[in-house]
Amino acid sequence: MSKEKKESVIESSIKRKYKLQAKDVKVWYGDFMAIKGISMDIKPNKVTAFIGPSGCGKSTFLRLFNRMNDYVDGFKMDGKINIDGSNINAKDINVELLRKQVGMVFQKPNPFPKSIFENVAYGLKIQGLKDKKFLEERVESSLKQVALWDEVKNDLNKSALALSGGQQQRLCIARTLAVEPSIILMDEPTSALDPISTAKIEELIYKLKDKYTIVIVTHNMQQASRISDNTAFFYLGELIEYDKTNKIFTNPEKQQTENYITGRFG
Amino acid sequence: MNNIRKNRLKDQAFKVWGIFCTLLGLVLLAVFIGNILVDGIMRIDWEFVMNLPSRKPEKAGIYTALIGSIWVLLLTTLIALPIGIAAAIYLEEYSKKNKLATILEVNISNLAGVPSIIYGLLGLEVFVRILEMGASVLAGSFTLALLILPIVIVSTREALKAVPKSIRDASFAMGASKWQTVYHQLLPASFGGILTGIILALSRAVGETAPLIVIGALAYVPFAPSSPMDEFSVLPIQIFNWITRPQHGFVENAAAAIIILLLITFVMNGIAVYFRNKWQKKFK
Amino acid sequence: MLNLEDHREILNQSGLEMFQLVRKQFIKSKEAFLNHDSDLAEEVLHTENRVNGMDLKLDRECERFIALHNPVASDLRFVLALRKINFDLERIGDHAYGISSYIVEVDTPVNKEVLEKLDFEEMYKAALSMLDDIRDAYKSGNAKKARKVFKKDKILNKINLKSFGVISEEVQKDPKLIDQYLLLFSVIKKIERVGDLITNIGEEIIFYLEAEVLKHRKKKGPSKSSK
């Protein structure tokens, strides 16, 4: 096999092994360099946690994977972001299609001011899927996945804003699941919730791992250690350490990582 | 202790002053309305509403002016609404937020404060003469539409701004295009605010006199307009006309017409307040 | 609410206190045995209460530390190691106690010649130096020092193995003294056990410092190039 062919075979098998990849990614907001050259490979069907002090770039980095940074004034980026081996910033990429494959859950639950049903069906409706029966089935299965179905099944037309915070967040997750993405990005999904709702959602994340690849940004060290398989520690726009969660929390390689997770700084 | 006493006195003093100012406005309004009612309420009957204008005060009615006002109101709405809302959506959601956008925003707000007679002059030249619409309902409507356009744009933008960013984020993150987000999320969510803005703009338009006089809305129109190209009159002009007549009967007529005009205005404002309250509840 | 670093320092000091306490017990028991000093032996017996009290206190403190601070990484390894170290130190104290209680019960001192044949003093000295090494390793966080004890433990094992033959010989020479010799035999066993306990502590210290688990593995002494 020629050298080029061999390299491409190796590269493509690496690409298939990794669901999400970043290659020497740099990000600027105007003159400010938010990400200073990060490379990272994320395996499928795992939960990867991003930890680090405020302002270290973890949310920015997360949002690269569904191109939500495109809406920020002055955003500029260098390097490659691949999903399933394809560069998502290529000219011919349909951003809306990308976002159906990569779902996102935000810090503060943000259901639409519509009914519960309308919320979950929204992603399907904007794709043009109108068949009533299909929508009903999809809504039901999504709400079941987030363990919300029993609580709301008799009241699907109730306004989503009437639900409690924890329920709203689960609704937002259901809404994301309804379009059947393969990747779910979560930006501090439980930081606005009480401990019991947090526990329910962590349980949910743990269950979802089987079908989805999940990346979660969190400020809560215990949460990262509880639910993630791998943890990445960010500091001032750099990736300091990225390893199995177990290793990071029992014996991290870098002193900075140790200082952060033991609470010595940050 | 003296300081505390002083502050308490200041507090009381302001309270008294505030009550006085509020009452002053209310009392004056009450006096005015009372006066008008006394003068005109007896005059209002079905004939008054249905009669055409006449030289004799007891035979004169507001029919043509009323129909003219309704025509103008409807056409103004049809013209100003789509343009105003579309412009607001573009400015708020699509255009880049650069220096040009800021200049544009300031200037649109300024346009809302331009004296309405200027709009009349503009309407006269552009719509009546250049576009040869004549002194028609259409010309009047276009003129008024221009006048209320800044109000529609600004209030629509405010209503859109009031929709939290998190809704947009959620919609985009689900793979919706900008237009889908506007159509499915932003417009429904800001509907109440937009509606309020429109009604307030229209309730201003219904009372405009100067610009319509300039473009040639006649005071003595013996027929109600039956097409947009017809000549017309409106209630405020009719009122103005009657006030300038010497016969005492016309004073009564004017008062009666004022009552009807006030009624229309109050009802429109009431609807606006109702919708504003309903809309605010949505985000609780 | 105690800050994590301060709390850890308190634990550290308590651990050191336990080391000092047990070391003193061990030295006293040695002196008492060699000089057949029953008063000194009584001292050891009385101090056992303090050792037990310290053991309980340290255990409680470790539990509190874990509950309040949710430690991770080196903090976690430290407190896990400390609990085990505490346990082992308490056992060493037990052995010192055991040696002293025999002195109290038996009247006659042991024959000096037999002690020499057994290399008894050498064994005790080695054990004591291991104890010092491990205390220093704990105090200064020095894994190299901790590794030293693995080699020294071999001395104890050697002497222990030899002791069986020597004692059985002595018993055959003078069967009337069998009580004494049985006592001697069990003391030697206790010292050998102390050596084992010290190597356990060494493993724990290395686990804490280097996250390396040496349990159930063949242990090498410090290499020339180790840190």
Layout of helices and strands:
The complex is a heterotrimer of chains A (266), B (284) and C (227).
Chain A: H1 3-17, E1 20-29, E2 32-42, E3 47-51, H2 58-64, E4 75-83, E5 86-87, H3 95-101, E6 102-105, H4 116-125, H5 132-145, H6 149-152, H7 165-177, E7 183-187, H8 195-208, E8 213-217, H9 221-227, E9 230-235, E10 238-244, H10 245-250, H11 255-261
Parallel strand pairs in A: 3-8, 3-9, 6-7, 7-8
Antiparallel strand pairs in A: 1-2, 1-4, 4-5, 9-10
Helix pairs in contact in A: 4-5, 4-7, 5-7, 7-8
Chain B: H1 2-40, H2 46-50, H3 63-94, H4 99-111, H5 116-130, H6 137-161, H7 165-173, H8 178-205, H9 210-215, H10 235-243, H11 248-282
Chain C: H1 4-35, H2 38-69, H3 73-105, H4 112-117, H5 120-140, H6 143-173, H7 178-210
Helix pairs in contact in C: 1-2, 1-3, 1-5, 2-3, 3-7, 5-6, 5-7, 6-7
Describe this structure in words.
The complex is a heterotrimer of chains A (266), B (284) and C (227). Chain A is α/β, with parallel strands linked by helices and 266 residues long. In chain A, 39% of the residues lie in helices and 24% in strands. In chain A, strands 6-7-8-3-9-10 form a 6-stranded mixed sheet, with helices on both faces. A 4-stranded antiparallel sheet of chain A has the order 2-1-4-5, covered by helices on one side. In chain A, helix 8 (195-208) links the parallel strand 7 and strand 8. In chain A, helix 4 (116-125) packs parallel to helix 7. The termini of chain A are far apart. The mean pLDDT of chain A is 91. Chain B has 11 helices and no strands. Chain B folds into 2 domains: 2-43; 48-282, MetI-like (MetI-like fold), CATH 1.10.3720. Helices cover 76% and strands 0% of the residues of chain B. Chain C has 227 residues and is an all-alpha fold. The mean pLDDT of chain C is 89. Chain C has helices at residues 4-35, 38-69, 73-105, 112-117, 120-140, 143-173, 178-210. In chain C, helix 2 (38-69) packs antiparallel against helix 3 (73-105) and helix 6 packs antiparallel against helix 7 (178-210). Chain A binds chain C through residues 221-222, 225, 249-252, 258, 261-264, and chain C through 4-5, 70-77, 211.
